[in-house]
Each structure stands twice: as C-alpha cells, then as structure tokens.
Design a protein that fits this description.
By secondary structure, this protein is an alpha/beta fold. Helices cover 46% and strands 16% of the residues. Helix 4 (95-115) runs antiparallel to helix 5 (129-145), helix 5 packs across helix 8 (187-197) and helix 8 crosses helix 9.
Amino acid sequence: ATEAALRTVLKLIRHDTTVVSLQNGLNSEAIARKALRGESVVLRAISQFGAVLERPGLVRYTVSGYTLLENHARSPRIAAVLDSAGLDCRIPEDMTREIWRKLVFNCVVNPITTIIGSKVGEIADPCLNRLKQLVIDECLAVAAKEGVLLEANLMAEINAAYAGSPNIVSMQQDLLHRRVTEIEYLNGAVAALGETHGVNCPINDALTRIIKGMEDTSRNIESVGLARNERKTAGTPVGMHPAKD
C-alpha cells in the first residue's frame, strides 16, 4: 500500500521534497525510502489521536491528541505546519522507542478486537488479560533485542486508554471492505523479527495467521459480528491510539 500510494505522486516528488509517513507498524519509512530511491527525505511520524473519515475530504476527531515527528533538520518547519492545523506536533528525543511503544498497543488492540468482532473498548475486558500480556511479553522481548527497553506495565495503560471506546479499529474496516490489513507490519513484523533474534513469538504469529486467514476467506462477515459493528459505528477510523501525556 505504501509503494502504491507513492507511485501516484512520484511525479510531484523532487530531491528537496519531504515525505512524512504516519503509518502504523515497523519499517514504513524504510519502504517509502526504497520506493523513492533515495530521491527525497522520508521522516517517520506517529498519530496519537482518534478520528473517523466521515466521507472523502471530511475527517471528524473522536479523541484529541498529538503527533510525534522524527527529529531532523526539517522537522521544526513541518511541526509548525502541523501545529497551525491543530495537530499539536511534538519532536521526541527517542522516536524509535515511541514507534515500538505504539506498535505494542497496536499489536494488542487491532487483531484481538478484530478477531472477536468488538469495538475498541472491549479490549479492557479482564478475560482478555492473559492473551494481552502474552502479546506484550513477546513484543517486549523482541524490542529488547533491538535495543529498545519499554515499561512492563503496558497492559494497564492499554486498559485505561481504551476502556469504553466506541470506535472500531481500521483492521476491522479493512476486512469489511475486503482489503488487505496491516497485520504483517504489526504482529507479523514482531514474529519475523523475533525469529531473526531467536525469540519465539507464537502468540503474535498465531494472531497474524488468523487475520491473514480472515483476509483470504469468503466467510460471511456478518457471522463474526463485524457488519453489526460497522452499522453502529459510522465512518472509518483514521487513528486509534488515544492521546496519553
């Protein structure tokens, strides 16, 4: 999807163009750099707010938050533009850590709520705690091998951040519209990276396989409750990580 999107604007990109990637998961910026053949600067950013796409050209905020932008000589100017649009752009000291932190949140919330066909808020259900912790533990082990140390109490943060949220994740929306999901850049990326480091990630691998199976199958989505959620929740989520200061 990243390469396809960039192909549509290649003729507009020059050597002095700055491309900002706000996609979830690992390595989106590396994919963009490869697609652009090093002809422009590519920076990574993270959206820490929630919104729904009401229709083309109209986005409605559902959770206020901020944007994190990779530190670069061009970053202050870009941050000023985003600030002027009300996106509260910040430049963190350790962008890699922020990327991994959000990755863990996404690896927990996105596939689990998609598989059970629920809204985001259901992720706080105590019956899911064991599964969530297993996902988190694997992510933390792989992150540590990459030199990134994260706090161990992320499940409590996830529960507090998402409890009661009426949104549904974009992964569900992708399945509803028969689109390929981002699972390979979330749990799939963790499992693959874990393999290179000798870290077993059976839970992340299993979640990846389940979602890929849901992509491939012709099952009636109504049977897993996704269509019901679509009717109850208007719009397509653009971001799904609530702001946390």
